Amino acid sequence: MAKKVALLVGVSNYHQQGLSALPSATRDAREMKRVLQHPDIGGFAETDITLLLNPTKDTMADAIYNLFANRSSEDLVLFYFSGHGAKDDNGNLYIAAPATRVSQNKRVLPQSAINASFIKDQMT
Question: Taking the model in full, what pTM does it have?
Answer without folding.
Answer: 0.94
